[in-house]
Amino acid sequence: MFNVSVFTLILLSFALGTCEYVVIGILPNIAADLNVPITQAGLLISVFAIVYSVGAPVITAFLSRFPRHKTMLTLLFLFIIGNIACMTAVSYNMMVASRVFLAAVSSALISISMTFAPDVALRKYTSSVISLIFAGFNIASVVGVPFSMFITQFTSWRVAFAFITLVSILLFVLVLKQLPKKSMPQASNLLGQLVLLTDRRIIMAALAMIFSGSASYCFYTYLTPILVEKLALPESMLSLAFIIFGVAAIISNLTSPLLNRVGGMRNLWIVFVVQTVASVMLTFTMTYFIAGSVTIFVLGLLMYLLNTPTQMYYLQISKKYYPGTMALAGSLTSSSYNVGIALGAFAGSYSVDIFGLGSVGITGGLFALLATLISYRLAVKIKYDYRHVLERARRLR
Q: What percentage of the chain's residues is helix, strand, coil (to nearest 5)?
């Protein structure tokens, strides 16, 4: 299963994830260097997420008409240019433009990379490879922020983007040499691609992912104040706490293929039930160190279990009912989850402003409940369709 081609896809997702998350750790330094308030610099994060979530399906649908390998190399070249632009930005406006450009390029890169998974591993390992690609993103979220903070202490925030640029140049060589050069099947035009987004099953799966992501980021956005103000964790221990939470998130991602093999989308609603309960419990346990810590760790374990089942379901629907939309199907997981991140962060902020920090658990629980209801309804439909196919097969015998 694990070969140089798979390593290339994992390293690519790590570079893309680091590019997205790196700003979080160096935000004060960027604000000071570009002479803007830190609240204004914080828009760099929001702008990236919004452009990423909107751009992923549209840009990917458009690019899927072109040869896949050449498109990947072109996007990687543009990714290198975008990081160089961030590294050399002399004004806030230039930084915003560079981040918008990078978000658009990154969204297409990760989407197209997903379509290589069936080509670089045996069929029985496809879901595991997809999980490892997502794991690259998760590792970046754990490593990227403290890494950028560490190197900024000794050099400049611009060195973080120089590091990403160097990794991207290595990736360009690896993609050129290691990934298969055969193209995807001829894709539909843009409107023919976007018809995938009108399928009820796709819409339900995407909504479940959006609401689950919202539930996670309701509390994750405020994890630092929860740890410091509610659990009374010393600030010197914050980095360790985030690393432990990151380990839980990585375990969640690596366990995701197992969930796909034991029912996939048909059983995903059970995960959301547990997420609902754990989210609500957070409100009542966050003032108790042991109970609150366990609850937060459990939420980390649940955070990315949905990735592989949902991504595989998108690809299955695309391949069976909408030939030529595989690249677009590959973009939907990252796009949907980024919508969830934006929605969860906004809802969490609104909840904290009105009801206080303790309310983020209940607010997240409401989102998780919506994910449960939608995914349960989808599971019922999947089981019904499966029985219908079996009955039809019996009648044809």
A: 85, 0, 15
How far is CA 223 from each of CA 19, 141, 239, 248, 258, rounded to the nearest angstrom? Answer: 21, 14, 12, 14, 28
pLDDT at 281 over 60: yes
Element (H, E) at 111: helix 92-114
For every residue of 318-362, DSSP letters joined together read HHHHSTT-HHHHHHHHHHHHHHHHHHHHHHHHHHHHHH-GGGHHH
Which residues contact residue 90 at a Cβ distance below 8 angstroms, ignoring those fewer than 6 apart? none
- What are the C-alpha distances in Å from 396 to residues 204, 320, 383, 391? 31, 20, 20, 9
**In 198-325, alpha helices (H):** 200-220, 223-225, 238-261, 268-285, 289-302, 307-321
CA 47 centroid distance within chain: 16
- Dist CA 142 CA 136 (whole Å): 10
In contact, 314 and 126? CB cutoff 8 Å: no
Place of tokens 């199907």: 329
Question: Residue 224 has which token pair?
Answer: 């630092």
Q: What is the distance between the alpha carbons of residues 280 and 284, in angstroms, rounded to a whole number?
A: 7
Of all helices (H) and strands (E), which one includes residue 137? helix 126-154
Confidence of residue 394 (pLDDT cuts 50, 70, 90): low
pLDDT tens figures, 322-349: 877 777 787 788 788 878 887 887 888 8
**For the segment 73-132, what is each residue's pLDDT rounded down to a tens digit?**
999 999 999 999 999 999 999 999 999 999 999 988 987 887 787 787 777 777 778 777
Structural contact between residues 106 and 20, judged by C-beta atoms closer than 8 angstroms: yes
The structure's pTM equals: 0.79
